[in-house]
Amino acid sequence: MTPERVYAMCPFRVNPVNALGPRRAPTDGSAVGPDRRSWQYRRMAEQIIAACDGASKGNPGPAAWAWVIADTDGEVERWEAGPLGTATNNVAELTALRELLESTDAGVPLEVRMDSQYAMKAVTTWLPGWRRKGWKTASGSPVANRELVVRIDELLDGRTVEFVYVPAHQVDGDPFNAAADRAASHTARTQQPAGTSLGSALPPPEAQTGTRSAGRGGTARPRTAAAQGQGRVTGAKKATGSKGSTGSKGSIKAKFPGRCRCGTPYAKGESISKNPDGWGHPSCAT
After folding, report:
1. Which of 18, 55, 170, 188 gives a 20 to 30 Å CA spacing to 139?
2. Is 57 helix (H, G, I), strand (E, B) or coil?
């Protein structure tokens, strides 16, 4: 499966030497050179490879953010994770991206791998329109999680960021996304900060299933790459309390298949809820 790549902002030319980080005096008498031990610059001048993820146990529920950065050998070089108390999965996903952007050098191109199409589309597709409309959606409603979105917009200004969508919880999925997922999920449960700066070991892999964890993002459902060209649902059947209705406040049964704002499709008959951009999964309504 070919990852979906989205580029944010315009290209930025990097000085091949200065991008390697601070210079230090050697102890062996050789010429002064860039400090290649600096974790932010180990991807040389070309690109920093990273992944970020968020988790919410209940959505909303105990939540956390996490990011990881790869080294030149394809291993996790550095990672950090932090608790958020009670928050939604969308807040956790956006916070993870904000924390990653704040922790990396804006002068070096960055590749961000993530399994949240909501977060990726929020900052690469929807954000320009929201900004033009004074942080309002197409329907005129206030943008959800505005503070996070505005901060991410500021952090993206003037730097080169390549967003790569990678499906979550795959047997042979992206290892950095999987590492970020484990870190976020573990920290959501413990509500204790963890990471390289604290001397923490990366949490081990958890038992894998074929669907997205209900505890992490609400309703369990398969995570697949977004199909192209599918629009939003155009009709729905309201729940009336009869047999087959959800009975949940604000939820209805989809009359037609469609696509949620997070980019993941929903099937005919699946429970959906109204959100600022249309209809979608109840967990993506906020």
Report:
1. 55
2. coil
Report all structural domains of the chain as residue ranges with CATH numbers, in order of start: 4-224 (3.30.420.10), 226-286 (no CATH)
pLDDT in tens, 167-178: 988 888 899 999
CB 90 within 8 A of CB 286: yes
Measured CA to CA, the distance from residue 134 to residue 136 in angstroms comes to 6
- Look up residue 19 and give its two tokens: 């991008």
Retrieve residue 181's tokens. 């997922």
> What's the pLDDT tens digit per position in 118-133?
998 999 899 999 999 9
* Residue 107 contacts residue 47 (beta carbons within 8 Å): no
User: Which residues have C-beta within 8 Å of that of residue 62, sequence separation ≥ 6?
Assistant: 56, 83, 85, 86, 188, 189, 191
Instruction: Check: CB of residue 155 under 8 Å from CB of residue 105.
Output: no
Q: Is the peptide bond before 60 cis (omega within 30 degrees of 0)?
A: yes
**Do the bridges between strand 236-237 and strand 110-114 make them parallel or antiparallel, or are there none, so unpaired?**
unpaired
Q: pTM (2 decimals)?
A: 0.63
The encoded tokens of residue 81 equal 């994770």
Residue 195: its H or E element: strand 194-195
Q: Which two tokens stand for residue 188?
A: 């959501």
Residues 59-81 as b/e (b if ≥16 CB within 10 A, e otherwise) read: bbbbbbbbbbbbeeeeebbbbbb
d(Cα 239, Cα 258) in Å, to the nearest integer? 17
62 contacts 185 by C-beta, under 8 angstroms: no
